[in-house]
Amino acid sequence: MSATATKTVVLEILRQDTTDATPYWEKFELEYRPNMNVISALMEIRRNPINADGKLTTPVNWDMNCLEEVCGACSMVINGRPRQSCTALIDQLEQPVRLEPMRTFPVVRDLIVDRSRMFDSLKKVKAWVPIDGTYDLGEGPRMPERKRQWAYELSKCMTCGVCLEACPNVNSGSDFMGPAPLSQVRLFNAHPTGAMNKDERLNAIMGEGGLANCGNSQNCVVACPKGIPLTTSIAALNRDTTVQMFKNFFGSDHMVD
Amino acid sequence: MSKDREFYLRRLHSLLGIIPVGLFMTQHFVVNHFATRGEESFNTAAHFMESLPFRFFLEWFVIFLPLMFHAFYGLYIAFTAKNNPQRYGTFRNWMFVLQRFSGVFLVVFIAWHVFETRFQAALGAEVNFNMMADILANPFMFAFYVLGVVTATFHFANGIWSFLVSWGITQSPTSQRISTYVTIGIFLALTVVGVQALLAFV
Ligand code: HEM
Ligand code: SF4
Ligand code: FES
């Protein structure tokens, strides 16, 4: 808690003007206020965009939405670790506070990244429960309450991208979709109605950039701010795809069961 | 190489690491251990292995081809990773890094070892106790072989751990922790067997 005693907050921010511009570091020194978080510090820079050299600069761009760690939009690399900036309290951070974009994703500007690849992966693995039809399909099977509670934990994923940033196998040289969409497959396959399409999801993650790219560094489960048991999900899917693989080859003409 | 086959290639890579390559390595270490019972025992054991029927078939299908597939695909896997142990210094992340480093070192070690022994045999040299004793008389070579043995046992033991995850056998954190302890035991046991055999040649 050394920051409480100091009068200023020093931030070093890796800035980038456009998608393919060269990044550069810029330093800012702000007046300390109690209970600041990284977002309120960034807002202070936006209000008064003067860097540590006393020069007028452009305000730093970042993304945010819920401000309570449920949307994932404000994720960035803070002092070397990817996390949400809305819950990163200045009092708990070592100074200078170094902010970088999550460069696993394409940088749009400054701290804003484009997480489209995650949303594309969710589409690819069909991370939803299909219920549309030409007639009313009626109620689905009931879900046991204890299973619902367990599934709720998996459903907390906010597609923030921290687990992809933490994973050594998600990078520009690989098309691995990363842990988050995989764990969503486990969630939707556990849903009693969603399970009616589980073979489609399993076959999707057995395709390009899928499950097999995991190399078990287990960084994701350490990094996930929502405490999602990502490595357990991956191991469980490894078993499900083992079974699916044999079913695909030796199985009869049935699909789901 | 079609990316759609990635899943099957990875599973094949994982399987071949244990069966046959890992089992062959264990068998190889056990046969080498005859050296601790003296020159004659080793030569008899090595000669027995050499004179197995279908030797050509066994060597290519149980050793060379599976090992080559595992090694080359392993190099591809190793070089696609962007290691980050300075960001996450956890045990598992270090094991991830070491699995890749040990794999890359094994390519060098195994290539050299095969050149010095099996390749020379193909050129007419006799592989026996004296050949190994000559090689290991050089302290640098001895150190290189000890490093090679330890790297191989580490890679195999840690590979058993990740094999169990890759096929969905160990899922829960508890089962994965216990398999860590068991594979550390396998690492230590195989290392003792391997290094004792090396010491018997000097
Ligand atoms: C010769 C050079 C070798 C290279 C370059 C190599 C490379 C690799 C790499 C990169 C992995 C990690 C795969 C992943 O996490 O997805 C791996 C796994 C493994 N390796 Fe090797 N390896 C080599 C030799 C060996 C040998 C000699 C053995 C057996 C004694 C072996 C047994 C294994 C096993 C059992 C795995 C675990 C498979 C899995 O993760 O499911 N490897 N290897
Ligand atoms: S699994 Fe966790 S770290 Fe990964 S995107 Fe979802 S919330 Fe973020
Ligand atoms: S603003 Fe939504 S998680 Fe931070």
Radius of gyration of chain B: 18 Å
Low-confidence stretches of chain A: none
Strand tally of chain B, please?
Answer: 0
Distance between the termini of chain A: 57 Å
Q: Structural class from helices and strands of chain B?
A: mainly alpha
Main sheet record of chain B:
none
What general form of chain A does the structure show?
elongated
CATH superfamily of chain B: Fumarate reductase/succinate dehydrogenase, transmembrane subunit
Largest sheet geometry of chain A: 5 strands, mixed
Strand content of chain B: under 5%
Report low-confidence residues of chain B grouped into runs of 5 or more.
none
Element order, helices and strands of chain B? HHHHHHH
Q: Could you state the oligomeric state of the chains shown?
A: heterodimer
> Would you identify the CATH H-level superfamily of the largest domain in chain A?
Alpha-helical ferredoxin
Q: Decide which structural class fits the backbone of chain A.
A: alpha+beta
Radius of gyration of chain A equals 22 Å
Q: What is the terminal-to-terminal distance of chain B?
A: 47 Å
Please report which band the strand proportion of chain A falls in: under 5%, 5-15%, 15-25%, 25-35%, 35-45% or over 45%.
5-15%
Instruction: Tell me which protein chains meet in the greatest interface and how many residues each side has.
Output: A-B, 37 and 34 residues
Family (chain A): Belongs to the succinate dehydrogenase/fumarate reductase iron-sulfur protein family.
Cofactor (chain A): [2Fe-2S] cluster; [3Fe-4S] cluster; [4Fe-4S] cluster
Pfam family, one (chain A): Fer4_8
Domain 4Fe-4S ferredoxin-type (chain A): 148-176
Topology:
The complex is a heterodimer of chains A (about 260) and B (about 200).
Chain A: E1 8-15, E2 24-31, H1 38-47, E3 75-78, E4 81-84, E5 97-100, E6 107-109, E7 112-113, H2 116-124, H3 145-154, H4 162-166, H5 179-190, H6 198-205, H7 219-223, H8 230-250
Parallel strand pairs in A: 1-5
Antiparallel strand pairs in A: 1-2, 3-4, 3-5, 6-7
Helix pairs in contact in A: 5-6, 5-8, 6-8
Chain B: H1 6-32, H2 39-50, H3 55-80, H4 91-122, H5 129-137, H6 139-166, H7 173-200
Helix pairs in contact in B: 1-3, 1-6, 1-7, 3-4, 4-6, 6-7
The structure holds protoporphyrin IX containing FE, iron/sulfur cluster (SF4) and FE2/S2 (inorganic) cluster.
Iron/sulfur cluster binds near residues 159, 160, 179, 226 and 230 of chain A.
